[in-house]
Design goal:
By secondary structure, the protein is mainly alpha-helical. The protein has one domain. Helix content is 35%, strand content 5%. Helix 1 packs across helix 3. It is globular, with a radius of gyration of 18 Å. The structure holds 2-acetamido-2-deoxy-beta-D-glucopyranose (2 copies). One 2-acetamido-2-deoxy-beta-D-glucopyranose (NAG) binds next to helix 5.
Protein backbone atom coordinates (compact mmCIF):
# COMPACT_ATOMS: atom_id res chain seq x y z
CA UNK A 1 0.00 0.00 0.00
CA UNK A 2 2.59 2.59 1.06
CA UNK A 3 1.78 5.95 -0.46
CA UNK A 4 -1.58 4.59 -1.65
CA UNK A 5 -2.49 4.05 1.98
CA UNK A 6 -1.54 7.61 2.84
CA UNK A 7 -3.71 8.97 0.07
CA UNK A 8 -6.69 6.89 1.10
CA UNK A 9 -6.13 8.32 4.54
CA UNK A 10 -6.08 11.84 3.10
CA UNK A 11 -9.40 11.22 1.42
CA UNK A 12 -10.87 9.80 4.61
CA UNK A 13 -9.62 12.85 6.47
CA UNK A 14 -11.33 15.11 3.97
CA UNK A 15 -14.59 13.33 4.68
CA UNK A 16 -14.00 13.33 8.41
CA UNK A 17 -13.28 17.06 8.37
CA UNK A 18 -16.41 17.70 6.36
CA UNK A 19 -18.38 15.82 9.00
CA UNK A 20 -16.76 17.69 11.86
CA UNK A 21 -16.89 21.10 10.21
CA UNK A 22 -19.58 21.04 7.56
CA UNK A 23 -19.65 24.82 7.33
CA UNK A 24 -15.90 25.15 7.03
CA UNK A 25 -15.82 22.70 4.10
CA UNK A 26 -12.71 21.04 5.42
CA UNK A 27 -11.02 24.39 5.07
CA UNK A 28 -7.76 23.22 6.56
CA UNK A 29 -7.10 21.11 3.48
CA UNK A 30 -7.69 24.03 1.12
CA UNK A 31 -4.72 25.30 -0.78
CA UNK A 32 -2.74 22.22 0.20
CA UNK A 33 -2.15 21.54 -3.48
CA UNK A 34 -2.07 17.82 -2.78
CA UNK A 35 -3.78 16.99 -6.08
CA UNK A 36 -4.39 18.88 -9.33
CA UNK A 37 -7.20 16.65 -10.55
CA UNK A 38 -9.62 13.88 -9.55
CA UNK A 39 -10.69 10.94 -11.73
CA UNK A 40 -13.63 8.98 -10.40
CA UNK A 41 -15.29 5.68 -11.26
CA UNK A 42 -18.31 4.04 -9.67
CA UNK A 43 -22.09 3.95 -9.44
CA UNK A 44 -24.72 6.26 -7.98
CA UNK A 45 -22.63 6.87 -4.88
CA UNK A 46 -20.21 8.81 -7.08
CA UNK A 47 -22.06 9.77 -10.29
CA UNK A 48 -22.27 13.57 -10.55
CA UNK A 49 -24.34 13.64 -13.74
CA UNK A 50 -23.59 10.88 -16.25
CA UNK A 51 -26.74 8.82 -15.68
CA UNK A 52 -29.18 11.18 -17.43
CA UNK A 53 -27.11 10.81 -20.59
CA UNK A 54 -26.87 7.03 -20.41
CA UNK A 55 -30.53 6.62 -19.48
CA UNK A 56 -31.31 8.81 -22.50
CA UNK A 57 -29.41 6.41 -24.78
CA UNK A 58 -31.78 3.68 -23.64
CA UNK A 59 -34.90 5.87 -23.48
CA UNK A 60 -35.29 5.12 -19.79
CA UNK A 61 -37.05 7.62 -17.53
CA UNK A 62 -34.58 9.00 -15.01
CA UNK A 63 -36.21 9.58 -11.65
CA UNK A 64 -33.35 11.70 -10.33
CA UNK A 65 -34.02 14.40 -12.91
CA UNK A 66 -37.24 15.48 -11.24
CA UNK A 67 -37.99 16.94 -7.78
CA UNK A 68 -37.11 16.52 -5.01
CA UNK A 69 -33.65 15.98 -6.48
CA UNK A 70 -31.77 19.24 -6.60
CA UNK A 71 -34.51 21.22 -4.90
CA UNK A 72 -32.37 22.61 -2.12
CA UNK A 73 -28.93 22.66 -3.68
CA UNK A 74 -27.13 23.25 -6.96
CA UNK A 75 -29.27 26.25 -7.79
CA UNK A 76 -32.50 24.31 -7.40
CA UNK A 77 -31.87 22.09 -10.43
CA UNK A 78 -31.40 18.32 -10.52
CA UNK A 79 -27.84 17.46 -11.53
CA UNK A 80 -28.20 13.73 -12.08
CA UNK A 81 -26.83 13.00 -8.62
CA UNK A 82 -28.79 10.27 -6.81
CA UNK A 83 -28.95 12.63 -3.89
CA UNK A 84 -30.50 16.01 -3.25
CA UNK A 85 -27.27 17.41 -1.88
CA UNK A 86 -23.62 16.67 -2.31
CA UNK A 87 -22.00 13.26 -2.55
CA UNK A 88 -18.81 12.13 -0.83
CA UNK A 89 -16.88 12.87 -4.02
CA UNK A 90 -18.15 16.47 -3.88
CA UNK A 91 -16.95 16.92 -0.31
CA UNK A 92 -13.58 15.46 -1.20
CA UNK A 93 -13.22 17.77 -4.22
CA UNK A 94 -14.15 20.78 -2.11
CA UNK A 95 -11.91 19.62 0.70
CA UNK A 96 -8.99 19.47 -1.70
CA UNK A 97 -9.81 22.88 -3.13
CA UNK A 98 -10.72 21.45 -6.55
CA UNK A 99 -13.84 22.00 -8.67
CA UNK A 100 -16.66 19.46 -8.33
CA UNK A 101 -15.62 16.55 -10.55
CA UNK A 102 -17.34 17.08 -13.94
CA UNK A 103 -19.35 14.18 -15.40
CA UNK A 104 -17.50 12.84 -18.44
CA UNK A 105 -20.58 12.26 -20.61
CA UNK A 106 -22.26 15.63 -20.13
CA UNK A 107 -19.56 18.17 -19.32
CA UNK A 108 -18.72 20.40 -22.25
CA UNK A 109 -15.61 22.06 -20.80
CA UNK A 110 -12.11 21.00 -19.83
CA UNK A 111 -11.21 17.81 -17.96
CA UNK A 112 -7.78 19.11 -16.93
CA UNK A 113 -8.88 19.13 -13.30
CA UNK A 114 -10.57 15.76 -13.50
CA UNK A 115 -13.43 13.74 -14.87
CA UNK A 116 -16.10 11.57 -13.34
CA UNK A 117 -16.90 8.33 -15.17
CA UNK A 118 -19.29 6.92 -12.55
CA UNK A 119 -22.82 6.09 -13.66
CA UNK A 120 -25.79 5.43 -11.39
CA UNK A 121 -26.71 1.77 -11.59
CA UNK A 122 -23.27 0.68 -12.82
CA UNK A 123 -22.02 -2.82 -12.12
CA UNK A 124 -18.47 -4.02 -11.57
CA UNK A 125 -19.02 -7.04 -13.83
CA UNK A 126 -19.92 -6.69 -17.51
CA UNK A 127 -23.58 -5.87 -17.87
CA UNK A 128 -23.96 -8.69 -20.40
CA UNK A 129 -23.37 -11.16 -17.56
CA UNK A 130 -26.66 -10.09 -15.96
CA UNK A 131 -28.64 -10.37 -19.18
CA UNK A 132 -27.85 -14.02 -19.87
CA UNK A 133 -31.15 -15.82 -20.37
CA UNK A 134 -33.23 -12.62 -20.36
CA UNK A 135 -36.66 -13.10 -21.93
CA UNK A 136 -37.62 -10.67 -24.73
CA UNK A 137 -38.62 -7.29 -23.35
CA UNK A 138 -36.65 -7.76 -20.13
CA UNK A 139 -35.38 -4.69 -18.31
CA UNK A 140 -32.42 -2.99 -20.00
CA UNK A 141 -30.79 -2.71 -16.54
CA UNK A 142 -27.98 -3.06 -15.81
CA UNK A 143 -27.01 -0.70 -18.61
CA UNK A 144 -23.68 -1.05 -20.35
CA UNK A 145 -21.69 1.06 -17.89
CA UNK A 146 -19.55 -1.49 -16.03
CA UNK A 147 -16.16 -0.72 -14.53
CA UNK A 148 -14.54 -1.95 -17.74
CA UNK A 149 -16.63 0.45 -19.85
CA UNK A 150 -15.77 3.34 -17.52
CA UNK A 151 -12.06 2.51 -17.76
CA UNK A 152 -12.52 2.52 -21.55
CA UNK A 153 -13.94 6.05 -21.41
CA UNK A 154 -10.93 7.07 -19.33
CA UNK A 155 -8.58 5.64 -21.99
CA UNK A 156 -10.53 7.60 -24.60
CA UNK A 157 -10.05 10.86 -22.69
CA UNK A 158 -6.40 10.31 -21.78
CA UNK A 159 -4.75 11.54 -25.03
CA UNK A 160 -6.35 14.95 -24.45
CA UNK A 161 -4.69 15.20 -21.03
CA UNK A 162 -1.14 14.03 -21.67
CA UNK A 163 0.87 12.49 -24.50
CA UNK A 164 4.24 11.05 -23.54
CA UNK A 165 4.72 8.47 -20.81
CA UNK A 166 6.57 11.02 -18.73
CA UNK A 167 3.88 13.65 -19.21
CA UNK A 168 1.21 11.16 -18.17
CA UNK A 169 3.23 10.03 -15.17
CA UNK A 170 3.60 13.64 -14.03
CA UNK A 171 -0.03 14.47 -14.73
CA UNK A 172 -1.59 11.42 -13.08
CA UNK A 173 1.00 11.47 -10.31
CA UNK A 174 -0.87 14.53 -9.10
CA UNK A 175 -4.34 13.05 -9.61
CA UNK A 176 -6.57 11.47 -7.04
CA UNK A 177 -8.16 8.29 -8.39
CA UNK A 178 -11.43 7.48 -6.67
CA UNK A 179 -12.68 3.96 -7.44
CA UNK A 180 -16.05 3.15 -6.01
CA UNK A 181 -18.42 2.36 -4.81
CA UNK A 182 -18.81 -0.78 -6.99
CA UNK A 183 -20.56 -4.06 -6.29
CA UNK A 184 -23.91 -3.17 -4.74
CA UNK A 185 -25.65 -3.16 -8.11
CA UNK A 186 -24.14 -6.51 -9.06
CA UNK A 187 -26.05 -7.96 -6.11
CA UNK A 188 -29.06 -5.71 -6.57
CA UNK A 189 -29.66 -6.96 -10.13
CA UNK A 190 -29.14 -10.58 -9.10
CA UNK A 191 -31.47 -10.96 -6.15
CA UNK A 192 -34.76 -12.33 -7.36
CA UNK A 193 -33.19 -13.43 -10.62
CA UNK A 194 -30.36 -15.72 -9.63
CA UNK A 195 -30.18 -18.25 -6.85
CA UNK A 196 -28.13 -17.60 -3.72
CA UNK A 197 -25.75 -20.26 -4.95
CA UNK A 198 -25.29 -18.49 -8.29
CA UNK A 199 -24.74 -15.18 -6.52
CA UNK A 200 -22.16 -16.67 -4.17
CA UNK A 201 -20.42 -18.16 -7.18
CA UNK A 202 -19.71 -14.78 -8.78
CA UNK A 203 -18.44 -13.07 -5.64
CA UNK A 204 -14.78 -13.95 -6.30
CA UNK A 205 -15.10 -12.59 -9.87
CA UNK A 206 -16.68 -9.46 -8.56
CA UNK A 207 -13.92 -8.85 -6.05
CA UNK A 208 -11.26 -9.58 -8.63
CA UNK A 209 -12.83 -7.20 -11.17
CA UNK A 210 -12.92 -4.34 -8.66
CA UNK A 211 -9.35 -5.07 -7.54
CA UNK A 212 -8.13 -5.19 -11.12
CA UNK A 213 -9.89 -1.92 -11.91
CA UNK A 214 -8.24 -0.24 -8.94
CA UNK A 215 -4.90 -1.85 -9.75
CA UNK A 216 -5.04 -0.73 -13.37
CA UNK A 217 -5.26 2.85 -12.12
CA UNK A 218 -2.28 2.29 -9.90
CA UNK A 219 -0.34 0.80 -12.78
CA UNK A 220 -0.75 4.02 -14.72
CA UNK A 221 1.55 5.72 -12.28
CA UNK A 222 -1.17 6.82 -9.98
CA UNK A 223 -0.70 5.63 -6.48
CA UNK A 224 -4.00 6.74 -5.17
CA UNK A 225 -7.01 4.51 -5.42
CA UNK A 226 -9.82 4.62 -2.92
CA UNK A 227 -11.95 1.49 -3.11
CA UNK A 228 -14.87 2.17 -0.84
CA UNK A 229 -17.07 -0.22 0.90
CA UNK A 230 -20.70 0.76 1.15
CA UNK A 231 -20.45 4.41 2.17
CA UNK A 232 -24.08 4.89 3.15
CA UNK A 233 -23.15 5.93 6.65
CA UNK A 234 -20.77 8.55 5.33
CA UNK A 235 -23.70 10.32 3.78
CA UNK A 236 -24.07 11.83 7.20
CA UNK A 237 -21.41 14.18 5.79
CA UNK A 238 -24.17 15.97 3.92
CA UNK A 239 -25.89 18.44 6.22
CA UNK A 240 -28.88 18.45 3.90
CA UNK A 241 -29.31 14.71 4.09
CA UNK A 242 -32.47 14.95 6.11
CA UNK A 243 -34.20 16.85 3.36
CA UNK A 244 -32.65 14.76 0.61
CA UNK A 245 -34.12 11.78 -1.10
CA UNK A 246 -32.21 8.96 -2.53
CA UNK A 247 -33.33 5.84 -4.32
CA UNK A 248 -31.15 3.09 -3.00
CA UNK A 249 -29.37 0.77 -5.34
CA UNK A 250 -29.34 2.75 -8.58
C1 LIG B 1 -16.50 -7.89 -20.80
O1 LIG B 1 -16.94 -7.98 -22.12
C2 LIG B 1 -15.95 -7.72 -23.09
C3 LIG B 1 -16.60 -7.80 -24.43
O2 LIG B 1 -17.72 -7.00 -24.49
C4 LIG B 1 -14.82 -8.72 -22.96
O3 LIG B 1 -13.80 -8.38 -23.86
C5 LIG B 1 -14.29 -8.70 -21.57
O4 LIG B 1 -13.33 -9.70 -21.39
C6 LIG B 1 -15.39 -8.88 -20.57
N1 LIG B 1 -14.85 -8.70 -19.26
C7 LIG B 1 -15.17 -9.50 -18.26
C8 LIG B 1 -14.55 -9.15 -16.96
O5 LIG B 1 -15.92 -10.45 -18.41
C1 LIG C 1 -20.63 -1.39 -24.22
O1 LIG C 1 -19.95 -0.18 -24.37
C2 LIG C 1 -18.65 -0.33 -24.90
C3 LIG C 1 -17.95 1.01 -24.86
O2 LIG C 1 -18.75 2.04 -25.33
C4 LIG C 1 -18.74 -0.94 -26.30
O3 LIG C 1 -17.45 -1.12 -26.81
C5 LIG C 1 -19.46 -2.27 -26.21
O4 LIG C 1 -19.65 -2.79 -27.50
C6 LIG C 1 -20.81 -2.11 -25.55
N1 LIG C 1 -21.39 -3.41 -25.33
C7 LIG C 1 -22.66 -3.66 -25.55
C8 LIG C 1 -23.12 -5.05 -25.24
O5 LIG C 1 -23.43 -2.82 -25.99
Amino acid sequence: MGSGGRLVLAALMAVALAILHPSAEAASLHGGGLFDSIFAFGDSFTDTGNNPIVFGWYNVFDVVMRPPYGMTSFGGHPTGRNCNGRLIIDFIAQGLGLPLVPPYLSHKGSFQQGANFAVGGATALNSSFFHIGDPPGASPFPLNTSLEVQLGWFEELKPSLCQTDQECKDFFGRSLFFVGEFGINDYHYSFGKKSMQEIRAFVPDLIQTISMGAESDRARGEDSSCPWDDPVRMRAADPRRLRGRRRFGI
